[in-house]
Amino acid sequence: MEDIAQHFMRAVRQSERGDWPYRHWKLRDVLPLDVCTGILTLPIAPPMLGLTDGTRNTYNDSRCFITPALRRKYPGCEALAQALQRPDVAALMAEICDIQANGSYLRMEYIQDLDGAWLEPHRDIKEKLFSMVIYLFLGPDAAEWGTDIYDADKRWVGQSSGEFNSGTIFIAGPATWHGFDPRPIVGVRRLMEINYVSADWRDRQQLAMPEAAIQVW
Question: What is the dihedral of CA 141, 158, 131, 87, to 10 degrees?
Fold first, then answer.
């Protein structure tokens, strides 16, 4: 847990901030390599969804959140959750992102997109105090699998690199349009979504530690 926390905090401190088309931070080498390997080798099969409607809410029952049950089953999930729950990690996220992390809750989702998956341009809800994606996919076409970025008029303006073990952070707002335009996925598009969410988050079954709010030093 200590190694994960220190590695993660170093990546956050060294992140590159940008303000167009909205404020965001780009990170590299987010997690220790053995943690990445542990995630990629979890015995969790990608959900066979076929063509989707461009949202994740329509298949909530098939999504893989790092829950207390998964933490008990897989030590790597427990170590990652404990690291991101730490007060010093939370204090750093509060400082960098200018959020009120104290009293929030940790939410982590392991995403495995197959061919046919896509996400329409959307904005995250304000209950997500920050949104972070860590890219964990590999393969000859992986460079094309980054998150698509749009401006305030939902016009495509760019794409995150999707480099292995890189990440992007942003704060939900009125112009934070992002998605994943339809395109071939040969293999599995694996990523982790990390959030601190507000205390009134309704879907408590999605939380890593629903019994323990985050405390900031």
Answer: 90
